Amino acid sequence: MGVVVSLGDGKRGQASIAPLVELTRADMGRVNELILSKAGSDVEMIPEVANHLISSGGKRLRPMLTIAAAQIFGYRGDLHVKLAASVEFMHTATLLHDDVVDESDLRRGKRTARMIWGNQASVLVGDFLLGQAFRMMVEVGSLEALDILSAAATVIAEGEVMQLDVAKNLETTEDEYLQVIRAKTAALFSAACEVGPVIASDNRSDRAALRSYGTNLGLAFQLVDDALDYGGKAETLGKNVGDDFREGKVTLPVILSYRRGSDEDRAFWKRAIEGGENGDAELQHALGLITRTGAIGDTVARARHFGGIARDALAPMPKSRHKTALLEVIDFCIDRVN
After folding, report:
1. pLDDT per residue over 219-234, tens digit each?
2. Cβ neighbours for 253, distance < 8 A, ≥ 6 positions apart
3. What Å distances lie between residue 263 and 186, 283, 289, CA to CA?
4. Which domain holds residue 311?
5. What pLDDT sits at residue 107?
C-alpha cells in the first residue's frame, strides 16, 4: 500500500545514459568479463553470492564513469579496465554490507543476498570482493590510483559508521546528513571519476575537475534516491518504496519535514522513526507531512544545486562526445524524479 507523491511538474525528461553506454560499450565488455573472472573462487558460495548481485541488472554507472573519465583524455591502454572493475567490486561489497546493516529484504527488485544466504555470508563475500578490488589496483601499478581508491574505501566505511550514529536521530541537521552521504555515496563516485585522469593525463586540473564532477554527481544521485523513497516506484528505486521510512532512516526529506512541522508533526516523526511505529498507515501520514512541508521539492532542489556544480566542474574542458555524455548523466540522475 502506498501513495505516490508527485516529484516533478512535467513529463519525464529525455536525458539518458545511452550516450555514455555507447561510448564505453567495448571497454565495459572487458570490464564485465574481468568482473566475472575475479568473482570466481573454489569456495562455492562466494561466486553464488557475488553473482547474485553482480548479475542483478545494475547499470554499472560507476565503472562506466571510470572508463569515460580515462577515454575523455585519449587514454588507449587497458589499465582503466582493471580500475573500473575495482570500482564495481567496491560498490558491490558496499551493497552487500549495507543490506546487512539496514536489514534490507529487496535489492534491485530481487531478494537480497542476506535473505538467501544469511548475514554472515553477505559480509564475508563483500570482504572477498574488496580484497579482489585491491589486488586489481595493485596490478595497475599506479600508487596515485591506489591511494585514491583506498582512501575512498576508508571514507565509505566512515560514512557507514556515521550513518549508524545519525540513524533514528531526528535532531540530525542537514549539514550533518550531507556529511554522511558525501562519505557514504559521493566518495566512490568521486574516486571512480578521478582515477581515469590519473592514468590518462598529467594535468592535475583535469584530475581536480573530474573529482569535483564525481563528488557532486554522487551527492545529487543520493538526494534523488532519498526523494524517490517517498514517491518513486520500486522498479526505478531498486528497492521497496518506503523502505527508508520502515527502516527508521533519517534522510533529508525527513529532516526537512521534521524541522518545518508542528509540535504534533514532530511527535509523529518521533513515534515513527525513533519508536518504530512505521506501518502502512504511518507511511501514508508521513507522505502527507512531507508533501505539506515541501520537503521533497526542496530535496530535489538541493540535488539540482549539486548537479549544477558537477556541470560547472566540466565547463572548462573542450567539447567532445565524452563531455556531452558525462553532462547528460547529471540530467539523467536528477530526471529520475519526473
Report:
1. 999 999 999 989 765 4
2. 226, 227, 229, 230, 290, 295, 296, 299
3. 34, 18, 12
4. 18-335
5. 77
Q: What is the pLDDT of residue 6?
A: 39
Q: Are 192 and 65 in contact (CB under 8 A)?
A: yes
Q: Which of 160, 131, 134, 162 is nearest to 148 (CA)?
A: 134
pLDDT of residue 95: 92
Distance (Å, rounded) from C-alpha 109 to C-alpha 197? 35
* Nearest-angstrom CA–CA distance, 32 and 81: 9
- Strand-pair partners of 121: none
Give dist(CA 116, CA 205) in Å, integer. 46
Place of cell 543476498: 113
| Coil, strand or helix at 7 | coil
Structural domains of the chain, count: 1
User: The pTM is what?
Assistant: 0.92
Q: How far apart are CA 189 and CA 155, in angstroms?
A: 12
The residues, ordered by sequence, that sit 6+ positions from 325 with a Cβ below 8 Å of its Cβ are: 17, 19, 20, 23, 68
pLDDT for position 53: 81
Please report whether residue 11 resides in a domain.
no
- Give the list of residues 6+ apart from residue 321 with CB closer than 8 angstroms, or none: 19, 23
User: Is the pLDDT at 287 greater than 50, yes or no?
Assistant: yes
Q: Is residue 210 part of a domain?
A: yes
Q: State whether the Cα torsion 108-114-120-121 is positive or negative.
A: negative
At which residue does the C-alpha cell 582503466 appear? Answer: 80
Looking at the DSSP bridge assignments, the partners of residue 106 are 111
**Residue 1 maps to a domain:** no
Nearest residue to 82 (alpha-carbon basis) of 128, 133, 119: 133
φ/ψ of residue 110, rounded to 5: -120, 160
Rg (CA), the chain: 20
